Amino acid sequence: MEAAGGVLHVDLGAIVANWRLLVSRHPAGPVAGVVKGDGYGLGAGPVARALYDAGCRHFFVALLDEALAIRDRIPNAMLAVLGGPTPGSEPAYIAHRIVPVLGSLREIEAWAGTDLPAILHIDTGMSRLGLDAREMAVLLQDPARLSGIDVRYIMTHLVSAEAANDPLNEHQRQRFAEACAGLPPAPRSFANSSGIFLGEKFGSDLARPGAALFGINPTPGQPNPMRQVVRLMARVLAVRDIPAGASVGYNATWRATRPSRIATAGVGYADGWDRGLSGRGRAFFDGAPVPLVGRVSMDLTTFDVTDFPAVAPGGWLEFLGAHQSPDEVAALAGTNGYEILTSLALRLPRVYEAA
């Protein structure tokens, strides 16, 4: 069935090309694929399989359920869960060969003696997950707590890697090195997407990029080195002529200052098109910007196409694509590109372009 409202095109080849670029920028060790949040909203299964076919053998997700959903797509790869094992979930990890990321003494104790792989997470400044300073002190005094655990990697998470000059980056690098020095030797995992671009000092045995794979700029303020991977097209459902002074949309937040043509497109905030774009967003028609007028509603968004007589019902407007990146939309909406992608609703049909 042809999409009635909108359709999301995902370029798997561009995602693979982005991964290969990141591999070239991280000679210290392999580059994983972080496909949490259903592959940043684009479909973790197809994305993970495309990366796997390209040679990626390390993957990270946030939740056990996310790992279970893609395990059969990447059969011989390391698949790790960043959120850590919840009590009672250990059998599922074992049965499906999923690697837990251990971020507390309780999680270490629950996994000890299994002789199975795990990743040890140290908090060096994020203050979310990972062993904090108190727990690290306990572990450093008694490293035997790790007995019976096959520690594949020791990892930490950068706080401000996208800000290359932030002193927090170097502070975290030193804290991580000091913490690892007191533990039994194990490979290290350090850089995220932006961390890969901080230079060789931030290289490690395994990098963990996520957003950069999906075209988000890992170097804000500089040209984006990554290829764009998504194209969101919205069908024009109706075009109507309105007189000067007529309002458009809820609460009449926009009024025509001239006789105008208004196109209504079949994508709204239920599809993930941010309501914060009301009155300030735009779409593109044949490469030219058309202003979003009125409020983004649940299923519909309206545009002033007075200067574009070729816009007609059944045609298409580009919401994301060659002329407008997720980062650019995020700037207009007051958020980041991650949220723009992960908000894209499942009711938008996905069309995958082969790698």
Task: Please give the structural blueprint.
Blueprint: E1 6-11, H1 12-25, E2 33-34, H2 36-40, H3 44-54, E3 58-61, H4 64-70, E4 78-81, H5 90-95, E5 99-102, H6 105-111, E6 116-121, H7 133-141, E7 149-155, H8 167-181, E8 188-189, E9 230-242, E10 247-248, E11 254-255, E12 260-265, E13 282-285, E14 288-291, E15 301-304, E16 316-320, H9 326-333, H10 337-342, E17 350-353
Parallel strand pairs: 1-17, 2-3, 3-4, 4-5, 5-6, 6-7, 7-8
Antiparallel strand pairs: 1-9, 9-12, 9-16, 10-11, 12-15, 13-14
Can you describe this structure?
- The protein is 25% helix and 22% strand.
- It has 355 residues and is an alpha/beta fold.
- It folds into two domains: 203 residues, TIM Barrel, CATH 3.20.20.10; 95 residues, Lyase, Ornithine Decarboxylase, Chain A, domain 1 (Beta Barrel), CATH 2.40.37.10.
- The chain has a seven-stranded parallel β-sheet with strand order 2-3-4-5-6-7-8. Strands 1, 9, 12, 15, 16 and 17 form a six-stranded mixed β-sheet that branches.
- The longest helix has 15 residues.
- It is elongated.
Helix count equals 10
- The tally of structural domains comes to 2
Euclidean distance between termini CA atoms = 24 Å
Instruction: Give the CA-based shape.
Output: elongated
CATH architecture group name of the largest domain = Alpha-Beta Barrel
Global mean pLDDT: 96
CATH homologous superfamily identity of the largest domain: Alanine racemase
Unreliable residue runs: none
